[in-house]
User: Fold this.
Amino acid sequence: MNTQANIVVGMGEALWDVLPEGKKIGGAPANFAYHVSQFGLPSFVVSSVGDDPLGNEILENFTSKGLNYIIDKVPYPTGTVQVELDQNGVPVYDIKENVAWDNIPSTEPLLELARRTKAVCFGSLAQRNVVSRNTINAFLDAMPKTENSLVVFDVNLRQGFYNKEILCNSMNRCNILKINDEELVTVSRMFGYPGIDLQDKCWILIGKYNLKMLILTCGINGSYVFTPGKVSFRPTPTVEVADTVGAGDSFTAAFISSILQGKSVDEAHTIAVNTSAFVCTRKGAMPILPKSVMEIEG
Assistant:
């Protein structure tokens, strides 16, 4: 019996981004799941927090937002990231180590969630520690292996918390790869094909890992969605940027939500671009999205 529902899971780090103006809840999985929920799909955050005031505040915040979660309390401090913004509003991160989200336990409730999951998004950062890495892999193993399952690897290279083995394993397990232009250069150099243009690198990755899609974001220079035999390109809208924290996560959430709701790749790409641009106009990673950015006009 197929018990799979349209449940969408963001799995990995849940933490506090300590910004110049104060702290805001962050972490790519939480950002992703929050924005998926705004598109009307059931979403879950999977992570861990400490048994401390910062952890309690995260859980209270997610509850107040109506977010579903499986977040265990573990005997490590809740994660924090010191975020400084450069002159272009682009975040520079100092990510604390040996924290709660490095130690996500694999539990029966988590595996039961996996068996009902239609789409999951995970990254490389949460795999820097073997405990969370093994839990992520166990979750992926427990997911239904159907044609319509979406396993999204959002590369998210941070502070050297990655290696070739983790990247290869993750790319082998995903069917949608999300990567930005700077990460693509790093990955290509690591994998031994640095001298070709970005699009050719994307086609190589699609073929090598048998991907359904590859999403390439290039900041102000637009974004691409590669599918076998076709490329969708969208320019980046010009907006007044407050900060770019969480913009990429909102892009991924909007795109995956739209695909699950039956939109075409081109339509989903347009919605993702508009959603990400809106998030850039607000401080922090979890603004409330207006209906206008979540829909295709006409």
User: Anything to note?
Assistant: The chain has a mean pLDDT of 91. The two ends are 39 Å apart (CA to CA).
